[in-house]
Amino acid sequence: MTIIQFMELFIPKQNDMPKRRYDLDWLRVIVFGLLIIYHSGMLYVADWGFHIKSQYQSESLANLMLLLSPWRMAILWIISGIGIRFILAKVSLWRFISLRSIRLLLPLLFAILVIIPPQLYYEMTFNGDLNLSYWEFYKAFFDSNSELFVNYQPGIWPHIDVNHLWYLRELWQYSLFIIPLLPLLNSAFIEKLTDKLFNTNAVVAIFLAATPIFIIQMSLDSSRNALGFTFLLYGYLIGWHPVFWQRIKDNCKTFCITALVSYLSLIAFYNLVWLEADTHTSEFLLMAGQLIHGLNRMLCALAVMGLASRYLNKNSKQLSYLSDAVYPYYIVHQTIIIAAGFELSKYSLGMSLEATLVILITIAGCIASFELIRRVELLRVVFGVRLKNHYAPNIQKVGYITAALVIIPFALEILF
């Protein structure tokens, strides 16, 4: 086998490959947009941990949070897997690694040093562990030996972590982890297997896809990474497979109904079993709850993708704008939520008004931030937005080398 033939094993087949999937772009925008609502809700939902909590908390709010919680990350990982397949069909493996690293790690590094520190500042102040100005806190933030942070767990570095941006870290890691699997994922054997699966009975296909999810949930105490990578692999495998997308479009109504039934079952389990669980709770009952949770992930993801495929596969100026805004909104939104929630809590506004103001302030802050970011080339770079201007090859080369020198130590820290 020649080197060229070997490298071809890492390139997915381009049969039936569309130029663009606008429904997936819209879905990505919508799911990231829902994070503003979801993370705002974390201030108010009782018994769910968060950096700070409002004085107004509701147990029933968990029922609404569970409407989003099981499937929102599953959808993002599926879209990410599809995106990887699209990219690998267009660029070399080396270019995939280099561009992926710069676009994900540079914004992540900038964010953990500039955008995320206020979250820790408000959290420590809320917990009564801090009585300093932000500037005094920020100077201490870069002292790895400071006793100020003794009660705060280390992340990438002592007391410095990715917080809500763990998706960027893990997306970069998964982008590397999938590379050794590409010859298998692109093989004729897997192609025949997926063809057979997508053409089989829908109930059987969903059961087979949900089984690994159920096993992961039952066997691992911390299943986030394994679930994320599994859904990313699912995304890569479905790619632009015509039979899969036609079937979820044709069965969209059925998926929506079954997703609703699974959601109601999950709510019943959460309120009647999970909240009351103790050492005497039946293992079989807990396993049944995990199965319901896993099925809810799959069914909701299929329903949402079916709806998007049927109604959102169209381009617009708004989509172009919002696609660029996704990463900046994602990076800044939680810091704004925590700051707004903390400051508004001083005024005893009541839950409804306070929560409404938190959401409005967060949206306004995200819009204002992006309007600034999109106008400054350097900010576009550190927030993961493609450059607006075209530069000479020599300038581009200097930029890539500079970015590589900045992120390589950071990348090694994340990997090892």
Write the layout of secondary structure elements.
Layout: H1 3-8, H2 22-41, H3 61-88, H4 93-115, H5 117-126, H6 134-141, H7 166-177, H8 182-185, H9 188-199, H10 202-219, H11 224-238, H12 242-250, H13 252-274, H14 283-311, H15 317-344, H16 351-373, H17 377-382, H18 393-415
Largest sheet geometry: none
Please report the total strand number as a whole number.
Answer: 0
In helices, the fraction of residues equals over 70%
Model regions low in confidence, pLDDT < 50 over at least 5 residues: none
Mean pLDDT: 93
SSE class: mainly alpha
The 3D shape can be described as globular
Strand content: under 5%
Number of helices: 18
In angstroms, what is the radius of gyration? 22 Å
Any overview of this molecule?
With 416 residues, this protein is an all-alpha fold. The chain has one domain (17-116, 162-415). It has helices spanning 3-8, 22-41, 61-88, 93-115, 117-126, 134-141, 166-177, 182-185, 188-199, 202-219, 224-238, 242-250, 252-274, 283-311, 317-344, 351-373, 377-382, 393-415. α2 (22-41) packs parallel to α15, α4 packs antiparallel against α7 and α12 (242-250) crosses α14. The protein is globular. The two termini are 33 Å apart.
Structural descriptors:
single chain, globular, 416 residues, mainly alpha
Structure, briefly:
71% of the residues lie in helices and 0% in strands.
